[in-house]
Predict the 3D structure of the following.
Amino acid sequence: MAAEVTMDLIKQLRLKTSVGTMACKKALIEANGDIEEAVKILRKKGAAVAAKRADNATNHGIVATSISDDSQMGSLIEISCETDFAENTDALKGFAASLAKHVMKQESATSISDLMNEKMQDSTFTVNETLEDVISKISENTKIGRTASFSTDEKGIITSYIHPGSTLGVLIELAASDDLSAHKDKLVAIARSFCMQASVTSPLCVRPEEIDSDILAKEKSFIQEQLATSGKPAAMIEKITVGKLAKYYEEVCLLNQKYIKDDKLKISDVCDQIGKEIGTTVTIKRFARFSIGQ
């Protein structure tokens, strides 16, 4: 005998899955009123929807971040989808926030394929199963893109910035030679301003020595080719090349850039100033910048 599918059962299933009323009712009928079986049915249908849409282009999306209360852990993640409509759904935003929290708490970096098989924080379901649920709700192909996770100790500060629209975000870590706990609020504010700068200026790296050697060689070759027909002595060409490379570093290296809030200072100068104020050395250790479509 078929079990009666009541509104109370439908409400319970909706609370568990966030799936629509009619879909919950059909799943409960198929499961003969068994809520746990209905959850499994809905998850299988979600997997089927995901498989059907797997080849659809995902040119839109959002980035999300999570930072621990002590500012010693942080993450930045990227989720892609098919349309800007899906970007604004609660289902996608909620998943992005949960995934960012999950990635933040990882003890070590992992591949996307390994990440998909992990159990979500505070959940019995894997990342992949949770993603399939999202796809079934928004009816769009949805993928996890890049992820970054930083962790430090009391000698570091981690913070982030998400640009309005949630399609661009930056995660940054400051490092010092002494405990920064007593100066956390000040340093978080400074670090956040560095994040905002990186969101605008798109630096390649923190400092010149981190530039890929091939990229640097091409830039130097380009400069010297421009100067080759100038008729200037070789020694002068080399001097000019050094000056032009310094300008290049100001464009692509975050520490070498002019500070967006005071262009009389470079970001490295700001780090030196704040270090002197609190009695230690402060610098930028690393950053991650994700922009949808880049």
Notes: The first strand starts at residue 60 and ends at 67. The mean pLDDT is 88. The longest helix spans residues 35-53. The chain is about 50% helix and 20% strand.
